[in-house]
Amino acid sequence: MNKSTLALAVAVGVLAQQAGAAGFIEDSKASVSSRTMYYNNDNRDGGADQKETAEGLKFDYLSGFTQGTVGFGIDAQALVGIHLDGGKGHHPDNNTFFPSDTDGSAVDEWSRVAGNVKARFSKTEAHYGGALQPNMPILVANDSRLLPQTFEGGTISSKEIDNVTLNVGQLEHAAGRASSNTTGMAVNGGTQDSNQFRYAGADWKVTKDLTLQYYHSNLKDYYKQNFFGLIHVLPISTNQSFKTDIRYFDSSSDGKNGDAGYQFNNNGGFAKNPGEVDNKTWSAMFTYTLGGNAFLVGHQRVNDDGGFVYLNQGSVVDGNGRNEGAGGTSFYLFTDAMVNGFVRAGENTTFGQYSYDFATLGVPGLKASVAYLHGDNIKAANGTGSDMSEWERDLRVDYTIQQGALKGFGATLRHGTYRGSEINIADQDQTRLIFNYTYSFM
To answer: Is residue 80 part of a domain?
Structure first.
């Protein structure tokens, strides 16, 4: 029994005596979510294609808090993934979408259960357990496949200061989006576990239209990272606005980084000091909204010393040398696209997107978007030769039923096209068809 499960069991025993307390039951929420996904990755460079369909089920229970100066509660989550079809030879043994069996084929199903205990004092909340899904500039839990990535550790969020949200925490393990197990944490290419990711930061709403952000994080023996952010929304009229979003990351080596197993592969690109973290990345996005139309344009610059750094446990293996399925990641940059990330050393990326909300035409729930990203000046991994380039085009359509018996049932169709020049990522055409439904019964 892992620590988060033990903590949940103890908490359930203690809180059972107070289960009738006002707030604990009355403010509870429970839901069951279903996600059916068809995933098709067409490798245009001649490698094996991936075509799989799977069903994901997620149960969430969020209690309220007991009465008193300090209120206590519990959260619980159960996840089940069911493989529906993969087609012989169309399931790669990489645990990126669905776990693999010992022979390399997809398992029939996989599952995991986790929970958190929580406490609230005034405007401050603390959570501890293994069902944490952080969403902060320095760490974004990934939910782009069948079931979500989760983390184990402790977090505190406080709003005691008006217009300021303070966040601190320490995470110790991660559960991948295609795994029943938890592992330590690492960066791209890192094979050694780190069981200490600490962070602290704040979001300050200076005015109703301006927010400033600062976060510091440290993945022991891998990297330290500082983040600065600015978000400003300029209202023009009742249906017009102009949004500015600026993000800056400064990352450096920590502890054993660079030693065997603790190396950072710099996203397959150049590194001034091979294996070591050394990066500065800035990104700016500007969005003009007019009615149902949204026009987005932006630019991102990764410095020449090394690639952008972020958590990714994809190279962590078990005692038998097999992939744990802990890979898959998200990061807080505008270039975190459907197929690629555009975060190699020296890369300059210009991107744009147009989206439309059909509610303005009397079709609420229907949205569509098209995005294009182009990165160039990518430094070759050996530091010599001509710079490289890459581009991606993403199309997306979403529809959610707004009323009737199937209210809340949603469908999403996404298609991404990626092409690169002499980069160690295969040219790909990727299609995802997703059906989502959540039923809340508390």
So the answer is: no
